[in-house]
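re: ur question from earlier - yeah i can do the single chain one, its not a big deal. heres the input i used so u can compare w yours
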Amino acid sequence: MQKIFILGAEVKVYMAKIEGYYPDIQRVITGYWSLDRALGDGVNTGAPMTIYEVFGFQAIGKTTFVTYLAGMMAEYYKKDLVFAPVEHVSRGYMSAILDSANFTGVATILGGWDMVKKFLAYKPSKDNEYVTDEMLIDCLLSASRDPSYAVAVLDSLSAIMAVSEMESSVADANMGRKGKLLSTLSRGLVHVSRFRQGNDSPYAAFLLSHKYAPMGGGAPTNTGSVTTGGEMKKNISKIRIGLRRVKDPLAFYEDSSGTPYDNHAYVLEGKVEKNNFGREGKTFFVVGLGGQGLHHGLTAMYECKKLKIASFGKSITLGNQKFGSIRSAVERAHAGDDEFFVPFIEALKDPSKVSKVKEENEDADQFIDEVE
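and the output i got, formated as C-alpha cells:
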C-alpha cells in the first residue's frame, strides 16, 4: 500500500495485483439500516451470499427472520428457494412471511417422497414409512447445486437424527452418528458454495441452531457461542448471527388481564458473532410483525429511536413531528399503511441531518396502561 496526498488529503493506493478469475462476493441490500451495515465490510453494505448460522434460544423468531431474509435474497436474483424443515413447518405461516418479503418465486419444501424422487439420483426404496434425515440432507445438497435455487434453509440442526438412532433402541450406542452427518453436510455446503460462485451463480445457505449452556464450565473462548450442530458447522459458516428478543414498549403481547393483543410486534437484536467478509461484533435490530414477517417501517421507526432521532413516549416523536401512539403505529403496520412510515425510512438515509430528540418516559408498564 502506498500513501499519496491530493489537495492535502491522504489517499491510500493499493499496489497489489491479484491474478486468477474468482468472482467477488455478491451482496443483497435488504433495506434494513442496521442489518445491512452489520453484515457489511466497512465499504460495501448488504447481506453476503454465503453460508450462515443463525442461532438463539427457542421461540424467539429465528425461523421468521431467516425465512424473510431468504425470500428477499431469492427475489433479488429472481430465483427460487429450498427449505428443509427438520422441525415442523406451517405452510400458511411460511407463505405469509414470504409474501411480506415480496417473494414471487417457488419455495420448495423438502421432506416428502415426491421431493426425494425429484432430487435424488440413487432413488432410495420406499421401504420406510418416512423420509430419513440423511435423505433430507441429500435432497438439500442436490437442490443447492441447481442454479434455479438461490437460497437453501435447514431448520433446524437441533432436531436432526441419524437413521441408526431412529431405528434402534435408545440403549444402543450411537455416539458420533449425528456429528458425522452434520460434518458431511457442512463440508458439502462449502463445496456447493464454491461451485456456485465459480459459475457466477450466487448462493446462500442458512443453518438454524439453538444456543445452549454446555456442561463442565463452557467452551474455549475463541470458538464463539456454543450451539447445536458441532464445531465443523461453526468453522464453515462464514457468518454467524445470534438472535435474542428485546423487551421494549414496541413489543407488547398481552394486557394486564392476560388477554393477548391480536396486533402485536416484537423486536429482535442480532449480533454478528462471526463475519469472514467484514468486522464481527456488530449488532442490528429488526422488528417482526405478529403473524407476518419483518416490517421495514416499524424497524426504521425503532432504529430512529436507537439513533436518538426519535423517541417513544405518549406519542412517537421524530424531529419536531408527532406520530401518535406506539399501538396505533403497530395497527397501521398490520393494516398495510406503508406511507405512515416513510418519514422514518427517509430519516435513515442521512441520520446526521435529523435533530436529536429528548428522551421521554418509555416504561413498558406505562405504555400497557395507556393502551388498555
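The first strand starts at residue 2 and ends at 6. not sure if urs matches, ping me
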